[in-house]
Amino acid sequence: MGAVYFYHLTRSPLEATLPMLLGKALGAGWRVAVRGTDAERLDWLDEKLWLGDGFLPHGRAGGEFDADQPVLLTTEASAPNAASCVMAVDGAVVAPEEVAPLDRVCILFDGNEGDAVEAARDQWRTLTGAGCAAQYWSQEGGSWAKKAESEGS
Question: What residues make up the domain containing 79?
Fold first, then answer.
């Protein structure tokens, strides 16, 4: 049964936090779908991931080798890379029924944007209300700290 981890970004931007989380997911042996809402924004993230420190194998959805990608950036709800982890960015929605078959769902949101915080709160209420286990992580104190948890049903 999967769990949802909410990451409230207040000190590090998405392009710094996402590679760290992707590295941990790949280290756990998971395939990842990074779900966004805007193709141009995912193109920007794709470039940032290629230019970052270290090698992070990934691709953009729509290519010939999507099924082979350990990390696939997509705007679609279903990823052809058999992802066991979904990382939702920029307000991408994850439905409660998606959580159970996954190892992990990560929802990353910018704490400096009021709309993003409100959307994350809505996602928390929806997912925990449906019985999904969830954790809320914040970096307000400088390092990541778990601030809330819901055990789910």
Answer: 3-150
Q: In this structure, what CATH number is given to the domain that contains residue 31?
A: 3.40.50.10110
pTM recorded for the entire structure: 0.94
- Tell me the per-residue pLDDT of 47-78, one tens digit each, with 9 for 90 and over: 999 887 777 889 999 989 999 999 999 999 88
Alpha carbon separation from 134 to 15, 19, 53, 127 (Å, rounded): 23, 21, 30, 8
What's the burial of 144, exposed, middle or buried (CB within 10 Å: 0-12/13-18/19+)?
middle
Tokens for 1? 């049964």
Of 101, 137, 133, the closest CA to residue 120 belongs to 137
How far apart (Å, rounded) are the C-alpha atoms in residues 97 and 141? 33
Give the pLDDT confidence score for residue 51 in this predicted structure: 85
